[in-house]
Structure formats: C-alpha cells, structure tokens
Amino acid sequence: GDLPAIPDHYKERPADAALRERLIKDGLQSVSLLGRGCGGAATLAGTAGLGKSTLAAVLARDVRVQSAFHDGIFWLRFGQERSALDVLRELAGMIDVDISALREQQAAVIDAIARWLDTRRCLLILDDVWTPEQAKPFTRLHAGRLLTTRVREVATRAGGRTQEIGALEWRQALRLLAACMQTGADLSTDADAKELVRLSGGLPVVLEQWGAVCRDQSMGSFLEELRRARGQNTFVDVEGGGDYEYDTFFAGMEVQLLRLEVNDAQIERCCCRLAVLPEDTEMPLSVAAMLWGVDDVDAAKIARKLEGQNLAKRTEAGGRTEASLSLLDLHLQYLRHRGRNAIAVWHAALLRGWMEGCVGGVLKPVGYWRRAGVLKHHLGGTGSVLLPESLTELNISGSSVGKEGAKALASALEGNAALKTLNLFRNNIGPEGATAIGEALRGNGVLT
C-alpha cells in the first residue's frame, strides 16, 4: 500500500539509526518495536500515539533500507477489523499473484505468495497488528518483516528482535509543540507550554493536535478549556493504551470540535461524519463529497481545512489514484464514540449516495467500494439501507459483506419493487444472512 506521509516536523531520534542498521543487518528476519513503560503496549510496538507507524514509514523511505530490500517494500495495514486473509489478498494484488481460484483458502494463498517471494529480497511492513493470529501466516513467507503493534503478545510471538520506543523527553516535546504551533519561540521557560507537555505524556500525536489548536488561541486559555472538558465529559477507553490516560487527549479534541462548531459549523459537521470510515482506510474525496453532501470542489476545500486543524490526514492525488482522507486511530475512535447516536444514519446516507450513482440502473463496486471489508463495514454500520428506485441490478459478488451486510440488504429488499437482479456470490453471508435474504425474498416477486 501507499506509505504514510512523513510529518514536516519529524526529527530522527537517537534510536532510529540503530534500528535502521539492525533491520538491514538482520535481512530476512522479523523486527518489532516496543513501547517503553507503556504497560501492555508493545513491538515497532508501543502505546497509541508514540509514532510507531511514522518511524516505520521513515525506515521504508530510507534509501539504505530500499537498497537492502531491492525487490520491494510492501506496506500492509491491519487494525482490529482486518483478518490475515484480507491482508494476504491485498499483498497478492500488489505483487500480481493470481489467487482468484483460491480466495477463501488461506494456506493456498500463502503458498502462492511464498513462491513469488522465495527468489526475491523484500520487506513486509505489518502495520498496527492486534493479534498473533493476524501476523502468524506472514512468518511462513521468505521476507524481512517489520511490525508495529500495541500488544506485547504480538511482539513476543512474532519472534526476531524487539526495539523499544519511548515517549519524547521534555526538550524534544517542547520543540515539537513549537513546530506544530508554527512558532519559532523558545518554549523552554513557558509555564503553560511545560504543563501541556506534562499532560501530553510526551506522545507526539497529542502534541501535534494541541499545537494545531494553539495556533489560534493562547496556551493558557486552551489549558483552561482542557481542564473544564475533562471534568464535564466521560471519554472512551483505548485498548492497548497501557498506563497512559487518553482522557486528556480526547478532552482536547472535544475543545477543538466545540470551537469549530461556533467558528465553522460545516467543518465540524464534516469532521464528525468521518466517524463512518473503516479503520486504517483512505477515503477518496469523491466519496467524502457524498458523505458530506457537497461537490468535489468544496470537498477538497474541507479536506484542506481538516488537515490544517490536524483532524485528518490528506493524501494528494497521484497517478491513477485520487486525493483522499484518512484518520488516526485515536481520532476515529473518539469520533465514533461522539457520534454513536447518529453514525447509522451517516452510513445509510453514504450508501444511498453511492447507489444513486448507478449507471443504467446497474451497480457494481469499484474503487473504494471494492476494497476488502469496505462494503461490509458500511452495510453493517447502518443496519438497513433504502435502495433507490433507479437501481435495477446490484452485483456485489466477492465483496464478503458477511451476515450483517446480508441482513441490511434483506431489510432493503422487503417491499422493493425496482431491483430485479442481485448477485451475492462469494459474500460469506452464512446461514443467518441466507435466512434473512430468503425471508425478504418471500415478499419480493421481482428479483430474479
């Protein structure tokens, strides 16, 4: 996959060079990053927000690492919602290995990929791995492996070497805060800056967020709002967060969103609706435009504003790919918590917008909608969807929508008199999904 962008303010830490040399020296072995003093956090492991993925991306872009793995470096995102087989399929697509006849046979897919890798020197970057089961199949592949994870067990069972990553020390943290505030001031004697660093726990993701906020308001006033928000709200737990209390980070997000609601309500509203994003997935701006109910020009403007507020990551268009948006895990987790009462409606609106774009009444997933797990995520998120009358043929074969997606489609089929053809081949709907579809078809005399 595409490598994450490196922040402009990124500074190499002393341990980075040692890790690079270890990665090159160990070659076709596994290297993991481990967060120091972070409770249950682990591999390029560590609690959320330490910069594990950023460091992995820096290494992937290093010409010495690229020279050592001259046949290719492949970035593979996991997260909590993707299985090993989902990622293996993605890797097969990257290296042009045809697995069309093997899609549900994990062992056979591994063998096909292994044959391609056996004569090559490649590096697989397994980003944001959550379970040993996700990483285990990749140990059978003849390739170097660099893992990032929050979970100590993953690092332990991955084998190979483990690299510890700690939080920023206070001088580094103050410099990062100043850079994100876009100020050249020396903050080493500023009491408010020191308090923000203390509350941040030295996590880069927190300092980046707060630095963006403090471009437009004083650090003192932000600290007051931060304390008030912590006292008034109950926030979400962060799995794999170790000893760090993320309530302060989420309180900062709440302060930021409340200020946007007053100063630019459209941006706040659009930011909140990004809660529908699948984990570790980039959403093309054309899809974001559907979600927000705006045209492509306005979507591009909104994306730039969200990026400026450090509330989203924007990837520029390149080659055959269009510009897109993605969220950090912590941002997504909080937006899902904050918008939990409206998120089903947002999923439904996005699906409706996609379906209304059918050409000649026929719809088949392409681009974003064809990605592994995307359609399943949005169908499962809404629980039901209203099919547009213009849609007469829906072909979602190979989309693996699962039983929840099938149930959502079943509710849409009841009473629908427009859809004439529905292709559900290779969707893993299971007995429950099949029963739901069967019950819906009893009252539908149109579908063939």
Topology:
Blueprint: H1 14-26, E1 30-35, H2 52-61, H3 63-68, E2 73-77, H4 84-94, H5 106-117, E3 123-129, H6 132-135, E4 144-149, H7 152-158, E5 161-165, H8 170-180, H9 191-200, H10 204-213, H11 219-232, H12 247-263, H13 265-273, E6 283-284, H14 285-292, H15 296-308, E7 313-315, E8 324-326, H16 329-338, H17 343-355, E9 362-363, H18 374-382, E10 393-395, H19 402-413, E11 421-423, H20 430-442
Parallel strand pairs: 1-4, 1-5, 2-3, 3-4, 9-10, 10-11
Antiparallel strand pairs: 6-8, 7-8
Please explain how this structure is put together.
This protein has helices at 14-26, 52-61, 63-68, 84-94, 106-117, 132-135, 152-158, 170-180, 191-200, 204-213, 219-232, 247-263, 265-273, 285-292, 296-308, 329-338, 343-355, 374-382, 402-413, 430-442, and strands at residues 30-35, 73-77, 123-129, 144-149, 161-165, 283-284, 313-315, 324-326, 362-363, 393-395, 421-423. The two termini are 38 Å apart. The strands form three sheets. The protein has a five-stranded parallel β-sheet with strand order 2-3-4-1-5, sandwiched between helices. The protein has a three-stranded antiparallel β-sheet with strand order 6-8-7. The chain has a three-stranded parallel β-sheet with strand order 9-10-11, with no helix packed on it. It has 20 helices and eleven strands. It is globular. With 448 residues, the chain is α/β, with parallel strands linked by helices. The longest helix has 17 residues, at 247-263. Strand 10, helix 19 and strand 11 (421-423) form a beta-alpha-beta unit. 47% of the residues lie in helices and 10% in strands.
